[in-house]
Amino acid sequence: MREMTLDRLPKKVLAKLDLETVFKASRCVIAAERLLVFRKLYGRELSAADIARRTGIHGKHCESFLDYLVLLGLLKKTKNLYSNSPLANRHFIQERSIEWTQLWSAECAKDFEAFTVLEDAISSGKDWRRILGKERKPDYQLLQEDSKWARGFTYALYDLNKSIAKILANNLDLSQYRSLLDVGGGSGVMSMALARAYPNLKACVLDFEFVCAATREIIRKERMSRRVKAVAGDMNKSIPGGFDVIMFWDIGHIDTRVIKMAYESLPESGMVVRSCPPPRRSGKPLGRFLWEYLSVRPEGQTRIDKINSLKKAGFESVRYRRINQSIGLIAGFKGRTHKK
Asked: 328 - beta bridge partners?
């Protein structure tokens, strides 16, 4: 799924947007997503009054708001009827699920709120949430405590990671293995891609119960229930045995104690796999700043940290391999004699 970058807008729209109006325009797009404007219009032509009734937009603002979306190239207006543009249909409907729309637009709205106190935050060093008096729990806590949020998060990451899962399956050789434990595997999108690539492989996703409830739905929809299971558990407490490959993919910081439990649960010649994005490029500091300012996740480990944690746990022949511009993986083996 591609991001909605400015280059996807019509050139005549781009010519009217400066840095200030881009910020304001993007907030209007987020509002349209949160109010499900594009979904209510999908396959329909509706008047402003009809759209107001379906979305809850007040009549005072509805027509002018819709006209602004027309200006951005996201809606079309024929006489007094509005409909989605091909760009809106493709990006906001066909390329993302309703769960992605709801969760991501809500998170983006919080990000906009965060930037209302940017000057105070970077001048004082205080967290923006503290300034606004709006603390937010880390993702891993919300996944355990909020079933609705966990479901939306799981489905959203399923949409986001489909293409990455295919890349992983094409670059990770599991032909000599029979069972995979996908620790913190969320939607199971990685496990399903690997199971499809290797017919003899069965996989089990280990995650929190609210996540697993959504994961089981996705697995059933993908008709992979015979090959992929979802089991509730907490990696910080125990790592189940009976698997010859254990994977930790895109789950942030992992304590060496957890890696050690994985080592102990694997058979001789078992393999561990960790995701590892390439180092940030010094010429692209914007992503780093946004992550540091907005994120509530623990700071991720470096490639060297991840390699050393595997070695410290006992894994041997630990190697890093870059498989895509934005994706790398680290693999290690239990025992000196391992499967090639």
From this structure: 322
